[in-house]
Amino acid sequence: MQVTIVRDKDEMGKVGAALIAEQMRAKPHFVLGLATGSTPLPLYQELIRMNKAGELDFSTTITFNLDEYVGVPPTHDQSYRSFMNVNLFDHINIVKAATHVPDGMAANPEAFCEAYECMMDDVGGVDYQVLGIGSNGHIAFNEPGSSLASRTRVVKLTQTTIKDNSRFFARVEDVPTRAMSMGIGTVLEAERIVILAHGANKADAVAAALEGPVTVSVPASALQLHPSVHWVIAEDAATKLKLEWGR
Ligand code: PGA
Question: Which one of 54, 84, 180, 219 is at 20 to 30 Å from 105 when CA atoms are compared?
Fold first, then answer.
């Protein structure tokens, strides 16, 4: 496990983008796993800058997003499909048909989740997975208590996550209560993982995931079992770490 502690979220984005770019340049038809939320925004801004500067090409890149709300159409401004279009895909030379976000309106969400796994297998699996961490230690929508072997499936959101995400909706009652999410077992199959964190509200979760036991109570702790994980943590999210990671 590698840990890089950086000054702030802008540096976090730049360091994360450099890690991904290095791998992308070495492999055409790169399969990138992507995340939503405020955490990866500085990373996406840097990837957009690199693309516009001619430093990074997305023309053959394939992407798979971690999750999507159930019952929210892709055109809804709070759908994760909209988020990805607005914050990344609309600004880079990627082929939209090569970008995959779970379909929140799928008639049979369970069957869709199985098909999503097959789509990832068909392109040889994810080369580099981007993750954020929730204040409760979740990765994607794998809330505490999710099996460490879980696969892409329909999940119920916890009250903590509903509250965290209510800032994006007019009322807390408007936040969807279910989502489709890659499982922890699915995420662990990626060749490489970069997990980003910034903000004081993430400090406890970061410390528990990095220095605590591997436990279903802290889904991100499962990353301790992966051979190629790189944590990029802004100082304000690293304050509870006790070991001398990357200092
Ligand atoms: P955030 O969410 O980036 O909006 O804090 C992170 C997550 O829940 O994975």
Answer: 219
Q: Which two tokens stand for residue 112?
A: 């869709």
Residues with CB under 6 A from ligand 1: 37-39, 132-134
Residue 171 pLDDT grade (very low, low, confident, very high; cuts 50, 70, 90):
confident
The catalytic site residues sit at 67, 136, 138, 143
Task: With a cut of 80, say whether residue 197 has pLDDT above it.
Answer: yes
Q: Distance between CA 179 and CA 154 in Å, rounded?
A: 6
- What single letter denotes the amino acid at residue 136? N
Nearest CA to ligand 1 atom 4: 37
Cβ proximity of 88 and 47 under 8 Å? yes
Other CB atoms within 10 Å distance of the CB of residue 105: 15
Find all residues with CB under 8 Å of 247, minimum gap 6, and list them: 5
Alpha carbons 219 and 53: distance in angstroms, whole number: 37
Tokens of 176: 């969807």
pLDDT value of residue 21 = 98
First to last CA, the chain: 14
Q: How far is the CA of 190 from the centre of ligand 1 (A)?
A: 20
How many residues belong to the chain?
A: 247
